[in-house]
């Protein structure tokens, strides 16, 4: 079988070691902020799986993990205001400390919908951690409590983030040309 040549993800924007250092310090900050408490970590599929896997393994707390799926109706590159949120209903969020973990905060439509959905379950607190923040693209007034890196207005891939299904597995974040 002919081996397909992998497409080019573009230059590295944030290296594997820069990510590792930053994720460790975010985990330390989260562990301090929630000291002595149990947290329910909502991992936003699929982009946040790599970040969340690295993050939760360094949080020194009692952690329960659940998954959230957010589908946005847009043209594929820009999310619209209509976001459908689905999550594991078996996880009881009432009175819980919920930490949403996502890959990138862009226009903010997705985060807004996720946070509104989770708040309807009356958790004690809801906070958000995002690996990347594209502040220049924000259309909705929403902010993350924990941000790994600010990034310029470029389409990024790797470390969980994809372009048409490719590049999620790459250990660094690349800026697609
Ligand atoms: P928002 O609703 O515009 O904030 O979009 C957030 C979601 O869009 C993220 O959780 C990603 O799944 C996706 N996204 C936004 N920008 C990028 C990017 O540069 N690369 C890969 N995915 C992105
Ligand atoms: Mg996403």
Describe this structure in words.
With 177 residues, the protein is α/β, with parallel strands linked by helices. Helix content is 21%, strand content 31%. The chain is built from three helices and nine strands; from the N terminus they run βαβαβββαββββ. The protein has helices spanning 16-33, 49-56, 109-119; strands spanning 12-14, 38-45, 62-72, 83-87, 97-105, 125-133, 146-150, 156-157, 173-175. Strands 4-3-2-5-6-7 form a six-stranded mixed beta sheet, sandwiched between helices. Helix 3 links the parallel strand 5 (97-105) and strand 6 (125-133). The longest helix has 18 residues, at 16-33. It is globular, with a radius of gyration of 16 Å. The two termini are 29 Å apart. The model has no long low-confidence stretch (mean pLDDT 93).
Write the layout of secondary structure elements.
Blueprint: E1 12-14, H1 16-33, E2 38-45, H2 49-56, E3 62-72, E4 83-87, E5 97-105, H3 109-119, E6 125-133, E7 146-150, E8 156-157, E9 173-175
Parallel strand pairs: 2-3, 2-5, 5-6, 6-7
Antiparallel strand pairs: 1-9, 3-4, 8-9
Helix pairs in contact: 1-2
Magnesium ion (MG) binds at residues 44, 47, 102-103.
Quaternary status: single chain
Q: β content, as a range?
A: 25-35%
- Beta-strand segment tally: 9
Widest beta sheet: strand line-up? 4-3-2-5-6-7
Associated small molecules? inosinic acid, magnesium ion
Molecular shape = globular
Q: What structural category do the secondary elements indicate?
A: alpha/beta
Taking the sheet with the most strands, its summary is:
6 strands, mixed
Residue stretches low in confidence (pLDDT < 50, at least 5 long) are: none
Number of contiguous helices: 3
CA distance, first residue to last residue: 29 Å
